[in-house]
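Hi R.,

Here's the chain you asked about this morning:
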Amino acid sequence: MGKDLVMVFINDATKKVTIRVKDVKADLSVAAVNSLMDTIVAKDVFRLNGGSLVSKESAKLVESTQEPIEMLTV
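And the predicted structure, written out as tokens:
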């Protein structure tokens, strides 16, 4: 069971862009997430079809579990 950091930004075209980082540290702080997002925007790290990321919209930690399903043969 891992935690993913889901960050949402606004790009030049005023569209929302979501970036997911899988299996982040369990003790990830609010300050660290804000600093990371500020750096991504300031350094223009990602350039996508809609242009550069220009501002932060939101962030959340998503925890998920996986449960295998047995395959039956017919």
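The beta strands are 2-11, 16-21, 47-48, 51-64.

Let me know if you need anything else.
M.
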